[in-house]
Every structure is written in structure tokens, then in C-alpha cells.
Amino acid sequence: MIPTLAGAFGSTPIFNEATGGTVTTFISGGKNYKRHVFLSGGTFTITRSAIPFIVTVVGGGGGGGAPPDGFGASNGGPGGFYSAPISLTLGAKTVSVGGGGADSGCVRIGGGGCGVGGQGGSSSITGGWTAGGGKGGAGFGCSETAVGTGSPSPAADGGVTARDNAAHGLSTSVGNGGNAAVGPYPGICSTAGLSGAVVVEYETI
């Protein structure tokens, strides 16, 4: 329910007001909304807080794995994902956006050690959620990197990987893990994970 301010000419709805990030507007269900998108760190400043903000936080994806023998590598895990309404207080909120995990190089024909992707970085906003980074993929028989822990956990934890199939997450995610280097061919290389994001939306005039 939108709060109102009574005046001489009737009641006027009170909406949230804020600045920061890349700002766009959209209509949903006949209502006007404003969206603030952060693809890198920044500051979200709230000058009026009347109703809950819808906050979405996505952690960075893990880097793809490279197999030691050309077979059996896994993609990087997706970054943790959490989205829900939350009441935020007035003032400046620090926004952190996790980067993608590093790639693990190229196919290693005849061995040459494990190609393990880097873990994605965590994303967060002050007073809101923290989404952990995804695991880095690995070749068969190699250990993946750790998964990032989010809050609330396990809902916002980073995604995990399976060594012999595509990445899968503990929760809904944007699937931003890096691709594995697959196939017994020199020169086929893994890719780094993609960065996360923080998005804040709220109803407006």
C-alpha cells in the first residue's frame, strides 16, 4: 500500500526517491516504476523511503575449467542470485559488484596439470542482500574452487559445478559462469565468468 500525505486538496501519494547507477523507468501492471542498475561498484543514495524497494543482487560467475587431457571439463558456476522487497533507510548505500572468475586457460593435451577457473566475486548493497560468487570449473579429477557464501544462505550462495556437465545453481541465477574448454584439441580455451549486478526498483509517480 502506498502511503499518502493529506493536504488542502486531498491526499497525495508518497513514493521513494533515490539516485545512483544507470536509471530507467518502466510500466508494469499499469504502475510506473524506476530501476537503478549497477554493473560496477557505486553508491545508491535514498532521499525518501516510503515503501519497500525491490532489490536484486547477482554474484560474479565462476571461470570455466580446462581438462588436463582434453576431456571432462565443467563450466563455471553461476553467481548467487536473490531478489525480494526490503525496507531501506535514508542515506547513502554502498554497492559492490563482484567480478567474474578468471578463466583457466586452454586444453592441456597430454596432461600439464589441472585447469581450474577462478571463483566469482560477491555482490552486495548496504542494508540488503549479499550474493556469493560462483565456483570455478575444473577438469575431470581436479578440484573446483570454493563457492561464495551469500546472505540469506543458501538461497544467495554461488552456484556449484559438476566436473562432467554444465553448471547448475543452488537457486535461480542468470547463468553467468564461464564456458569450459571442451574437446581434445589444442587451442580450445575456457572463458572467464561474467560480472554480477545489483538492481534496485520501486514504484514511482
Please tell me how large the radius of gyration is: 21 Å
Shape: elongated
Number of strands: 14
The low-confidence runs, each spanning 5 or more residues with pLDDT under 50, are: 4-11, 162-174
Give the rounded overall mean pLDDT. Answer: 81
Question: Between the first and last Cα atoms, what is the distance in angstroms?
Answer: 14 Å
Summary, kept brief:
The chain has strands at residues 4-7, 10-13, 17-19, 22-28, 31-38, 42-48, 53-58, 81-86, 91-96, 123-125, 130-131, 160-162, 165-168, 197-203. With 205 residues, it is an all-beta fold.
Description of the structure:
The chain has 205 residues and is mostly beta strands. The chain has one domain. The protein has strands at residues 4-7, 10-13, 17-19, 22-28, 31-38, 42-48, 53-58, 81-86, 91-96, 123-125, 130-131, 160-162, 165-168, 197-203. A five-stranded antiparallel β-sheet has the order 3-6-9-10-11, with no helix packed on it. Strand 10 and strand 11 (130-131) form a beta hairpin. The radius of gyration is 21 Å and the shape is elongated. The protein starts with a strand and ends with a strand. Residues 4-11 and 162-174 have low confidence and may be disordered.
